Amino acid sequence: MAATDTVAPPTGTIRYWAAAKAAAGIAEEPYAARTLADALAAARDRHRAEPEFARVLLRCSFLVDGDPVGTRDHHAVQLADGGTVEVLPPFAGG
User: Fold this and answer.
1) Is the distance from CB of 62 to CB of 73 less than 8 angstroms?
2) How far apart are CA 12 and CA 32, in angstroms?
3) Confidence of residue 68 (pLDDT cuts 50, 70, 90)
4) Which residues are CB-neighbours of 66 under 8 A, at least 6 positions away?
5) What percent of the chain has pLDDT over 70?
6) What's the pTM?
């Protein structure tokens, strides 16, 4: 087992906005994950009783510590200890 396997994953906050907040039923929650993909998978699992949550996430864009994720693979987006993931559904208007 590698030494990094025994180190706890980074922790931080996931913030939900607009439709994502409504689907989650909360404005924010903690994460304990190494990547954005891991954090989102854990969030989907926590909110499995709200099926709209997973559907909303499919349409969202994400900011990690203020930086847009864009089209990057979520498995490649590393999370930092004390970081913030913003979950932004599409907004109407322009």
Assistant:
1) no
2) 7
3) very high
4) 84
5) 91
6) 0.89
β-bridge mates for residue 78, sequence order: 35
Which stretches of the chain are assigned E, i.e. beta strand?
11-16, 28-32, 61-64, 67-68, 83-88
Query: What does DSSP say about strands 11-16 and 83-88: parallel, antiparallel, or unpaired?
Result: parallel
Residue for token pair 């996430």 = 57
CA distances from 70 to 21, 22, 37, 76, 78 (A): 20, 23, 13, 12, 14
**Is pLDDT of 94 > 80?**
no
* CA–CA distance, 53 with 44 (Å, rounded to integer): 7
